[in-house]
Amino acid sequence: MNNKSKIRLFFLKVKALLKLISFIVFELNKIKRAKVIFFFPYYHTGGAEKVHLNIVKAVNEVENYIFFTDRSYSEGFKKQFFKYANGYEVYDFLNRNYLVKKIFTKVLISKINSCQNLKSVFGCHSLFYYELIPHLNETIKKYDLTHAFIKPDKGGIEIFSLPYVKNLDKRIVINFKTKEDYMDLYKSKSLSKFDERIQIIPNGIETLEESHNVKESNIFYVGFVGRWAKEKRPEMFLEIANNMKLYYPNIRFVMAGPNFEENEKAIKNAGIINLGEIKDENILKEWYSKINILLITSYREGFPMVIMESMMYGVIPISTNVGSISEHLMDNFNGFLIENELVLKDIENKFIEKIIYLYQNDEERLLLSNNAKEYGVNKFGIENFREKYKSLLLD
């Protein structure tokens, strides 16, 4: 490490220490008043973050506190989170200075254990949360949430959290598939006695006002909504657009999501409309009302929020058959499923085949669109979601 790096590291450590002092002076009383304390990694734009925000909203009638334990790459939902709860970003406390982390952890454990009003703590995908919960009083209910299960041979939070399963009062999952995966993992680790603590709470979304599925007849849109991440395979969407643009010029491809900056040139070369990160929900709703088909090209998912949202607008999902998507997406009824075990080129060709089929068959497209909307409205309402989380966290 050169002198410049050493100086920079020193100032980061000093900054973290000063920030910790400020936290102790100004934030501890807010934590003392909290009924629920949340530990989330991020507030940037994403499906998981939208679920976390909805959980916070479910208990916003009481005072709560949120710790964000990792560094977010955009402002995303930050304002909305802090609208419904007090909170603090603690990445610097956990990563800049061992002494700062030790002091912060000790102070936080003491404060949480002394809280008179606290009902529960709740975490998702936060390593610090699991390290913390063995030190909290037994009277405090402890819950976590898993969005998508990562197979044990690939590591992940599921493996890291195993030593702390005994400390969790409930482990929340969003679908039957994830519950089954956990039960298999528990069995292999002689933890089956904790199966009964796994509870399913499906995600929900707010009813979208005046959602409809009457699309413009002269333009046919195929969309991708999601962050640029390895497991979502956005490059496959680009490849599909590249293969189709010369033969079907009336089919427009559009992408929306954060973290697209490094790939702007490739997106443009594929002839794709790049919306980037959409921070205004009304703009996203406008695009859902235009898009005919949504592609989910992922090799790993739980159940994407974008499927739930778009179906309410009559958008037809075409998705790889991964995670729990097949629990809601029924092939040739409210969308299409494509097997993920095929080689990549064959998966791309299957997507193209379904796009062309819907493009050329107006009657079939309208039928699937109606089915998608009806299913979305009936299955994905927010009220049941809110009631279950309110009961879990406050009762």
Q: Can you put this structure into words, describing what you see?
A:
The chain is an alpha/beta fold and 395 residues long. The protein has two domains: 3-204 and 382-394, Rossmann fold (3-Layer(aba) Sandwich); 220-379, Rossmann fold (3-Layer(aba) Sandwich), CATH 3.40.50. Helices cover 44% and strands 15% of the residues. It has helices at 3-26, 28-32, 47-58, 78-84, 91-95, 98-114, 127-132, 157-160, 176-188, 234-244, 264-269, 281-288, 305-311, 344-360, 362-379, 382-394; strands at 36-40, 64-68, 86-89, 120-123, 141-146, 170-173, 198-200, 220-225, 251-256, 273-276, 293-296, 316-320, 336-338. The strands form two sheets. The chain has a seven-stranded parallel β-sheet. It has a six-stranded parallel β-sheet with strand order 10-9-8-11-12-13, with helices on both faces. The N and C termini lie far apart (52 Å). The mean pLDDT is 92. It comes from Flavobacterium johnsoniae (Cytophaga johnsonae). Residues 215-374 form the Glycosyl transferase family domain. Pfam families: Glycos_transf_1.
- Give, in spatial order, the strands making up the sheet with the most strands: 3-2-1-4-5-6-7
Q: Describe the biggest sheet?
A: 7 strands, parallel
Structural class: alpha/beta
> What is the number of E strands?
13
Strand content range: 5-15%
The tally of domains stands at 2
Which outline best applies?
globular
Q: Give the SSE string.
A: HHEHEHEHHEHEHEHEEHEHEHEHEEHHH
Query: CATH homologous superfamily of the largest domain - what is it?
Result: Glycogen Phosphorylase B
Distance between the termini: 52 Å
Q: Count of DSSP helices?
A: 16
Q: Tell me the name of the CATH class of the largest domain.
A: Alpha Beta
Task: Supply the CATH architecture of the largest domain.
Answer: 3-Layer(aba) Sandwich
Low-confidence stretches: none
Report Rg.
Answer: 23 Å
Organism: Flavobacterium johnsoniae (Cytophaga johnsonae)
Pfam family, one: Glycos_transf_1
InterPro entries: Glyco_trans_1
Domain Glycosyl transferase family: 215-374
